[in-house]
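User: Hi! I have a protein structure encoded as tokens and I'd like to know what sequence might fold into it. I'm fairly new to this, so please keep things simple.
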């Protein structure tokens, strides 16, 4: 079986690649999880974040933006002491402000899902990359969404981070063509 090369031989990375990465998301809690995890990934490897994912889930109340939006200074300091997550104060504080912005966006659009899929008219962008070297770090679409999110008060949503969560959540199919998941996900919605 041929797959994208980025999971290497790490069993957790392989499982994530084979079952989750690139599958279209339509659940707002999952969307918020990807936004949080990709923000924490900035400057780090996805492997590091994936191996801390369950710790993040416990520390951040199952990635529930309604709960996170109410975090106070005491919770920030508690998270700064949690060795199971990435203890970056700016990223922790941005998670709280992003939860607030996320709830406002949900209120405006009915759901984050409606908002984000509106950029592609509800369609998955089917790329056809021959190798991982062909896959861009950002695109015109991620530039547009990044700018829009920043204007709405989101932080740690640069174009590269946005493109990463668009890939994770299946807005774009960036599995390389020879990967078995590429054809499995083609036509998914």
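Assistant: Happy to help. Inverse folding works backwards from shape to sequence: for each of the 189 positions I chose a residue that suits the local structure. Here it is:
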């Amino acid at each position: 079986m041929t797959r994208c090369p980025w999971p290497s031989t790490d069993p957790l990375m392989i499982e994530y690649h084979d079952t989750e990465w690139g599958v279209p998301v339509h659940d707002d809690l999952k969307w918020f999880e990807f936004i949080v995890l990709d923000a924490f990934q900035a400057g780090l490897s996805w492997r590091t974040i994936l191996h801390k994912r369950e710790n993040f889930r416990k520390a951040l109340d199952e990635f529930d933006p309604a709960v996170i939006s109410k975090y106070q200074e005491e919770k920030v300091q508690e998270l700064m002491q949690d060795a199971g997550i990435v203890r970056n104060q700016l990223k922790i504080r941005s998670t709280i402000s992003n939860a607030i912005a996320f709830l406002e966006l949900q209120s405006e659009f009915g759901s984050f899902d409606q908002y984000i899929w509106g950029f592609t008219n509800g369609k998955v962008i089917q790329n056809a990359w021959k190798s991982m070297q062909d896959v861009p770090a950002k695109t015109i679409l991620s530039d547009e969404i990044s700018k829009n999110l920043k204007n709405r008060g989101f932080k740690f949503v640069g174009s590269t981070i946005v493109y990463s969560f668009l890939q994770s959540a299946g807005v774009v199919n960036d599995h390389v063509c020879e990967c078995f998941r590429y054809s499995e996900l083609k036509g998914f919605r």
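A useful reference point when you look it over: The mean pLDDT is 96. Feel free to ask if any position seems puzzling.
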